[in-house]
Amino acid sequence: MRIILYIVWALFVVAAAFAMVHAIRKTRRQEQLMASWPKVQATVTGSVAGWTSGGGGSSRSRRFFPTYQFTDPRGTLFMGKSEISTAAVPAPGSLIEVAYNPGDPNESLQVSSAPRTTLGCLVPFFAVFAVALFWFISVFPLG
Questions:
Q1: What is the pLDDT of residue 57?
Q2: Which residues contact 109 (CB under 8 A, 6 or more apart)?
Q3: Nearest one of 58, 79, 77 to 68, comparing CA atoms
Q4: What percent of the residues of the chain are helix, what percent strand, and what percent coil, each to the nearest 5?
Q5: What's the pLDDT score for residue 54?
Q6: pLDDT in tens, 5-58
Q7: How many domains is the chain partitioned into structurally?
Q8: Do 1 and 30 sit in the same domain of this protein?
Q9: Residues in domain DUF3592 (predicted)?
Q10: How far is C-alpha 2 from the chain's CA centre?
């Protein structure tokens, strides 16, 4: 029976590692793109509501993804939606910094350190959680 618990643990660790590697690569790719893109102040026009997954035993909570508009140097108006959520409804008219692709200004991303900070906290958390779970399996009494 214990071997089944170790197999489930290993599958969890592999899945968590795969998800974190994917998230780290996506974040790095976006940071590299944004490094060479022009940055402008965008005006928040509203938000799109969503929900957290409620994972890890936490309750689901409502999150808001700002929608915004900005103009390029030629004065053309472009719109976008942030991938970075907030707990509070963003105030329409407030300013956020975005980077946009000069070749296709319809492609824009909100400039923020939040994704990097979140990943920096999640990696050690999952490492400690995996070790604790491994220890728990080894001391779990099996009838």
A1: 60
A2: 30, 33, 34, 37, 80, 82, 83, 98, 99, 100
A3: 79
A4: 45, 30, 25
A5: 61
A6: 999 999 999 999 999 899 889 888 888 888 899 999 999 999 999 887 666 566
A7: 2
A8: yes
A9: 40-108
A10: 35
